[in-house]
Amino acid sequence: MQALQRKFSVSERRACEVLDQPRSSQRYVGQPKDEDARLTKKILELVRQRPRFGYRRIAVLLRRAGEVINDKRMYRLWKTAGLKVPRKRRKQRSSGNKHNACHVVPAGFTNDVWTWDFVHSSTVDGRTLRFLNIVDEYTRLCLSIKVGRSITSEDAIDTLAELFSMHGVPKRLRCDNGPEFISSAIKRWLCTLGVDVLYIEPGSPWQNGLCESFNGKLRDEYLHQTELLSEADARLKARAWREDFNDHRPHSSLGYLTPSEFARRCADSAPFAARTPLHQHSEQSEPLFVS
């Protein structure tokens, strides 16, 4: 009707007379039925419970609950309520790349590059255990094996802080893109200390080959050779195995010296910056605080 009024420049009254329609028909505004409001309320309740369901699945749930509704009506109520399935958000990936691989950026001296990674196992009762391994890439010295049911980024910071106070702060730290390693807390803390983080390319564990090699030895010579009765038992056995690995196990890439022997031979020739105290290396006069 409005289109005819604009085309012929006539009033609503004249247009209705020509088409033989009552003028009230042009002013009618449909009112939603009470049934629609009731169904919409149920739809919203189901959507809150199943946010990833589309209108067809919600319609099936309504029909199973005894409601009489077809897909066409369901779609109309769905659109009227402004509903839609939210888009999946892609997980944030780290900016790691192949240029941080161990064969591209190798360690040149003690405390040049540390590497860390997780290994998973379980106790005899089937409960999960996590092992956080930290190794000096140049000397192959295992600095720590932290054992726990759950190891968060805060636990990782505490472990690094203890090692930094004992061995000094490394120049770089190589790791994969695990959630604990890419956490904002760890990034900020390491940046404050002036430690560069070398994130390897996602899905490329061979780029952290030295740590993966250590993980393989840990599985083959420790985890697969003994039963872990509890978390405390695993912690004691891991400490004993780490001491044996550092002090008694000959390493082929070190000329069959143990990591401890090789580290002692390197101590006199290591660059001064790699062996300076924590507060000097990080250019801070304050002691280390862990948040």
TrEMBL record:
Family matches, as PROSITE patterns: INTEGRASE
Family matches, as InterPro entries: HTH-like_dom (IPR025948), Integrase_cat-core (IPR001584), RNaseH-like_sf (IPR012337), RNaseH_sf (IPR036397), Transpos_IS3 (IPR048020)
Q: Which GO terms describe its biological process?
A: DNA integration
Q: Which SUPFAM superfamilies match?
A: Ribonuclease H-like (SSF53098)
Q: Which GO terms describe its molecular function?
A: nucleic acid binding
Domain Integrase catalytic, first and last residues per copy? 102-267
| Record-linked Pfam families | HTH_21, rve_3
Record NCBIfam families: transpos_IS3
**Protein name per the record:** IS2 transposase TnpB
Which organism does this record belong to?
Novipirellula herctigrandis
